[in-house]
Amino acid sequence: MQGAGNDYVYIDCRENIPENFSDLAKRVSNRHFGIGSDGLVLIWPPLNPENHARMQMFNADGSEAEMCGNAIRCVARFVREKWNLTAAPLKIETKAGVKIIQTKNGENGFLAAVDMGEPILEGEVMLNGWLFRKISMGNPHAVTIVHNVADAPVLTEGPVLEAAKAFPQKSNIEFVEIVNYNHIKMRVWERGAGETLACGTGACAAAIAAILHRDASRILTVELLGGCLDIEWNSETNHIIMTGPAEFVFEGVWL
User: Predicted confidence band at 15 (pLDDT cuts at 50, 70, 90)?
Assistant: First the structure.
């Protein structure tokens, strides 16, 4: 499945439980010798019966991550259609807490709106000549504002910045261009995966950074290499609401 081009392999773990999740993530994610993906997502029954499903995710390098905004939208669609869950809203457990998701089928297909919770602002840090704002969305992000995101050195500086001493758990790195008051562009170097076409939590962090830069609305569109996400930072609840697509690509059996 993919959400705005951020693609993962999803496994239904109600019955067939794989072994060695980290190694499996590396093997299936390999785009030449495996299936090819940004990582692996396991969909489990919930630990708390008041919730509807549990999501566990691993990056392409085998490291386990707390959450992924694009992946959780795909999990929502998966349990809607494969588990026949009709509850509204859906409550999905993650290592970053329980996320509340509203889904709908509109003119442009399936959409999911995820309450991503409150961001944690962790200050600023100067690295390699860029001022980064550190923001946690349950996982770590570092966001810098640039004039032209197309020219941002994502591939060369991303792996260096990800592992900088300022980030004890490493970090996702976002380069953001403010197009206008309601529109920003973003490229991302994802921790453990490299540059990806989209990052949902990264889009949330990018929107927050642009708003705090005082050059963006609290409701805006984040344009990524793989598509667009709509982000709202609610001034009353302080919660971030992320809305975007989730699509099935193919199904198969891993031998």
Answer: confident
The secondary structure element, H or E, covering residue 85 is: none
Residue 199 annotated to the active site: yes
Q: pLDDT at residue 99 above 90?
A: yes
Tokens 């993919």 — which residue? 2
- In the set 68, 74, 204, 228, the catalytic residue is 68
Q: What residue ranges define each of the domains in the chain, with the CATH number in brackets? A: 2-114 (3.10.310.10), 120-243 (3.10.310.10)
Half-sphere exposure of 29 (CA within 13 A, CB side): 24
Among residues 63, 131, 151, 109, which one has the least CA distance to residue 244? 109
- The pLDDT value recorded for residue 214 is 87
Task: Give CA–CA dist 234/241, Å, rounded.
Answer: 8
| C-alpha closest to that of 103 among 9, 240, 242, 250 | 242
CB 201 within 8 A of CB 139: yes
pLDDT tens digits for 177-216? Answer: 999 999 999 999 999 999 999 999 999 999 999 999 988 9
Q: In the numeric block, which tokens belong to residue 197?
A: 């076409």
Q: Which residue out of 13, 74, 199, 204 is catalytically annotated? A: 199
Q: Is residue 68 annotated as a catalytic residue, yes or no?
A: yes
pTM: 0.94
Angle at 192 between CA 79 and CA 44, to 5 degrees: 20
Tokens linked to 71: 């992946």
